[in-house]
User: Which sequence fits this backbone?
């Protein structure tokens, strides 16, 4: 393997681990991020001539630590020149507080502390004291390695907004003395829920992106990668397994969700030969393993996705099983959105009228686009094109992107052109 490819592979594999260890050693996100960047820059200069070391991670951690100490000392000297005694004292204290790190400690870190460092970093980024949007941004910045600009583009936010969130999150961790640690077993379940939610929010942000938004679409792959890291570190947590399974089973359909023109293609109309069979197989295996341990909300959602993915044709879908799984999910986590999805399943399993009956009982979804889209389709099936058109118009006003707007417009054009009460059962997820 040529050096540039080898270096890029080491960057992908080791950056988060090196950063996590340096945060522990230096006690500062800012210092550790700077030290990590300088360590990789030093490697780029040294390794072509000297060769890649046998233990590149240990080399990078050691280089990063020394670069940080050198930088602090230089800044202390500069501050002394302007006679800022208080600041000089602070920098000197910071230098002296960094614990010595011998080579044998770095080698020991390969076996145990490094994975723990990554786990500590995940839980620190997702600490409940931080706002949810800050948790997401900090997770992507530290564990995902995304630049502030990339995060801003992905979430369609100004760069200054994301930068401010990151600064505030790091300041909150420092000022509130949020521990850089994994919670004790008694508190792990509660804290793990926040970690899983943040990863799923990142995935959903990418899943909802359109072909014209590649930065956002890439978040799906990043969320899956982070979920793999979490499962690697917590192999006995069934919900970590269930979340990874859910992401894989949903993302397996990515290539078929939009046509060549960038228009949305709903589940029943997708070319299933374009689905990722390897991802489906892995997701199904992880789902079964999660169920054998203790099925939670992510594992149940993964099971629903697996039922869809294993149907060779739309007509083969076991809708009765899907409704039953939604019943279980509602007992664990009552939600009007889950009830909406169940209503669609009831319509497919029993009749459009039965689905509409469930739908009409729902509250709190007046501003939720999928509610009106589902209602429109059920009304169309029930022979009420006028009601369906009104619902599609409401959905169109709430649509999140151009592809959805175009999809609803096509449905409206079809209704207005035909004036027929007949419709095929295409269009429900």
Assistant:
């Amino acid at each position: 393997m040529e050096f540039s490819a080898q270096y890029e592979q080491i960057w992908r594999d080791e950056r988060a681990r090196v950063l996590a260890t340096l945060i522990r050693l230096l006690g500062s996100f800012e210092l550790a991020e700077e030290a990590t960047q300088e360590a990789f820059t030093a490697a780029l200069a040294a390794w072509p001539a000297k060769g890649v070391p046998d233990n590149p991670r240990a080399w990078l951690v050691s280089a990063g630590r020394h670069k940080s100490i050198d930088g602090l000392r230089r800044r202390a000297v500069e501050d002394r020149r302007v006679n800022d005694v208080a600041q000089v004292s602070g920098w000197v204290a910071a230098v002296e507080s960094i614990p010595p790190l011998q080579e044998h400690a770095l080698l020991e870190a390969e076996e145990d502390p490094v994975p723990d460092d990554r786990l500590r970093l995940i839980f620190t980024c997702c600490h409940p004291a931080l706002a949810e949007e800050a948790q997401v941004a900090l997770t992507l910045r530290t564990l995902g390695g995304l630049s502030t600009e990339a995060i801003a583009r992905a979430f369609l936010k100004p760069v200054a907004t994301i930068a401010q969130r990151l600064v505030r999150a790091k300041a909150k961790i420092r000022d509130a003395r949020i521990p850089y640690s994994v919670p004790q077993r008694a508190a792990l379940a509660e804290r793990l829920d926040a970690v899983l939610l943040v990863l799923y929010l990142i995935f959903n942000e990418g899943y909802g992106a359109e072909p014209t938004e590649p930065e956002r679409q890439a978040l799906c792959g990043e969320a899956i990668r982070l979920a793999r890291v979490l499962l690697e570190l917590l192999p006995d947590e069934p919900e970590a397994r269930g979340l990874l399974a859910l992401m894989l089973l949903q993302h397996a359909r990515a290539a078929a969700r939009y046509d060549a023109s960038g228009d949305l293609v709903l589940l029943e109309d997708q070319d299933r030969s374009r689905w990722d069979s390897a991802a489906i197989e892995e997701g199904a295996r992880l789902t079964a393993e999660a169920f054998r341990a203790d099925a939670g909300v992510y594992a149940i959602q993964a099971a629903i996705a697996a039922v869809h993915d294993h149907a060779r044709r739309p007509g083969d879908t076991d809708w009765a099983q899907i409704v039953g799984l939604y019943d279980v999910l509602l007992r664990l986590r009552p939600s009007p959105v889950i009830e909406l999805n169940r209503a669609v399943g009831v319509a497919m399993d029993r009749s459009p009228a039965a689905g509409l009956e469930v739908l009409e009982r729902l509250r709190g979804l007046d501003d939720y686009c999928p509610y009106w889209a589902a209602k429109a389709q059920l009304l169309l099936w029930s022979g009420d094109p006028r009601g369906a058109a009104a619902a599609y118009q409401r959905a169109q006003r709430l649509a999140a992107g151009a592809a959805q707007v175009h999809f609803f417009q096509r449905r409206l054009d079809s209704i207005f052109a035909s004036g027929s009460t007949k419709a095929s059962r295409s269009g429900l997820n």
